[in-house]
Amino acid sequence: MKLAPGEPVTPERAGWHFLSFAVHDLTGPMKLGGHGFETAVVILGGGGGRIGDLELPGRASVWEGLPSAAYLPPGVVATIIPGRGSLTVAVASAPASGRATADAPVRIGPEDVRVEIRGAGNATRQINHIISPGFPADRLEVVEVYTPSGNWSSWPPHKHDTDDMPNEAILEEVYSYRFRRPEAWGVQRLYGGSVDALYAVRDGEAVVVADGYHPFVATHGDDAYYLNALAGDHRTMACSYDPSLGSVMDAWSSMEPDARLPLVS
């Protein structure tokens, strides 16, 4: 399912159990969090702001700095207040399972984000780890992915729709896209699950990944970004690869990574 800019993802709409997701353009305060669910907030653009007692630096856009974010444990309510002018934030939430989490809101600054350069050749991409499996959250995980023009990411195609720990876990996932040139577009493929589709995805749009393989390619001349928000019963990114394509990773050790990366540091 592809959603237009501003359309929220809810469990009812996505046909899954946990993950809610939305992007908000704020000019004033907004309440976040609540009883029975955890919340993650990532600043996509703007002059920074305050979430409760946490000060978060801004970035003009996702192309001009590493992210800052906040995690609100289950039951915590906080108000986000833009610092200077408007503020664009991505908000993900999921119901609590009862797992132990941080006992107070957590600030995640740019200095806390681990940057990974993954893949090789034209399958090289940049991963910014914001809320990883080792983070003291419940169901939520959040990463950013930068794909240089002409490159593939989420490659080889992988899926996480089967409970087969430790090899694979069921993870609900949203892709939320931005492009360095707002008029650009990329291609998102879904296959091997309940949907077989090719989507031309544009700036601000999102795709719901309920199951199946889901590779992405950035079109020639245009760098692409997407925020991945995930939720599941296990704190893991365990996945399995398309068996007809997974062997491409064997060649990566003899290939150079794309020298254009990192795109943002």
How would you explain this protein's 3D organization?
The strands form five sheets. The chain has a seven-stranded antiparallel sheet, with no helix packed on it. The protein has a five-stranded antiparallel sheet with strand order 2-9-4-7-10, with no helix packed on it. A four-stranded antiparallel sheet has the order 3-8-5-6, with no helix packed on it. The model has no long low-confidence stretch (mean pLDDT 96). The radius of gyration is 17 Å and the shape is globular. The chain has one helix spanning 11-14, and strands spanning 2-3, 20-26, 30-33, 37-46, 49-51, 54-56, 69-72, 77-82, 87-95, 106-108, 114-118, 125-131, 140-147, 152-153, 158-159, 171-179, 185-190, 197-202, 206-209, 216-218, 224-232, 240-241. It is an all-beta fold. The protein has one domain: Jelly Rolls (Sandwich), CATH 2.60.120. The protein is built from one helix and 22 strands.
Uncertain segments of ≥5 residues (pLDDT<50)?
none
Q: So, CATH architecture?
A: Sandwich
Per DSSP, the total helix count is 1
* Element order: H for helix, E for strand: EHEEEEEEEEEEEEEEEEEEEEE
CATH hierarchy, class: Mainly Beta
Number of separate strands? 22
Distance between the termini: 32 Å
| Helix/sheet category | mainly beta
In short:
This protein is mostly beta strands and 265 residues long.
Write the SSE topology.
Elements: E1 2-3, H1 11-14, E2 20-26, E3 30-33, E4 37-46, E5 49-51, E6 54-56, E7 69-72, E8 77-82, E9 87-95, E10 106-108, E11 114-118, E12 125-131, E13 140-147, E14 152-153, E15 158-159, E16 171-179, E17 185-190, E18 197-202, E19 206-209, E20 216-218, E21 224-232, E22 240-241
Antiparallel strand pairs: 1-19, 2-9, 3-8, 4-7, 4-9, 5-6, 5-8, 7-10, 11-12, 12-13, 13-21, 14-20, 15-22, 16-19, 16-21, 17-18, 17-20
